[in-house]
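COURSE: Structural Biology Practicum
ASSIGNMENT: Worksheet 4, Part C
STUDENT ID: 0417
INSTRUCTIONS: Below are two proteins. For each, the amino acid sequence is given first, followed by its structure token string. Answer the questions at the end about the second protein only.

PROTEIN I
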Amino acid sequence: QVQLVESGGASVEAGGSLTLSCEPTRRGLRLFCAAWFRQVPGTEREGIAALYFTTTGTTTYADSVKGRFTVSRDNAKTTLYLQMNSLKPEDTAMYYCAARRTNCLGWRSTADFGYWGQGTQVTVS
């Protein structure tokens, strides 16, 4: 079963930056849409950024992170990144990457994403 592995979570001060990475555990799988979600205990998982992973590289963002976070991929289209700048305490959450074989329409819902990572914790104080 293909899974995704995130890394890069840490504790940082407000105003700081972090870069999260996400890779599949098995190569060669054509994943069309890749996204980042975050979740605070007791709340629903929130979609914050998505990217058309194997085609145009078009990106889209939730208003809560627009202008501060950047989602990208490497040239080999094997790794997904989330560059997070100007971090705020309200960005504290578990961050998950997700992927699916369909386009990114309706990407903010978790329902159509079949591949998930285990999460990486980001704490901003």
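PROTEIN II
(use this one for the questions)
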Amino acid sequence: DAHLVESGGGSVQAGGSLTLSCTGTTFRLAASRMSWYRQPKGDECELVASVTSDAKTTYLDSVKGRFIIAQDNAENKSYLQMNNLKPEDTAKYFCAADGVVTGYFCSRADSGTWGQGTQVTVSS
């Protein structure tokens, strides 16, 4: 089975920074479209950022200029650097390889390989 393991979540005050990491334990990430999704409590899953195998990036409008998605193929890791965090960024964050979500919950994705999620809490 393919696996992704996330780390780096936690609690931070507004304006602070966190970097989430996602490690592929059984397959190479370089050939995949890597994405970070989040699920705020009581709200639906949303795509935060993604990077294709040819390094094209996309971002949710609300995080543009604050978040950066990056990939280290030598380390087989994907990163989400989050700067100037806001309380509305509070959510459970998931990394996904070739992930597709059409429903409400990140945990019930349509396809792809997903990590277990890591909680990010931003206090005002």
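ANSWER KEY EXCERPT:
Q1: DSSP finds no helices and eleven strands in the chain.
Q2: The chain has a mean pLDDT of 94.
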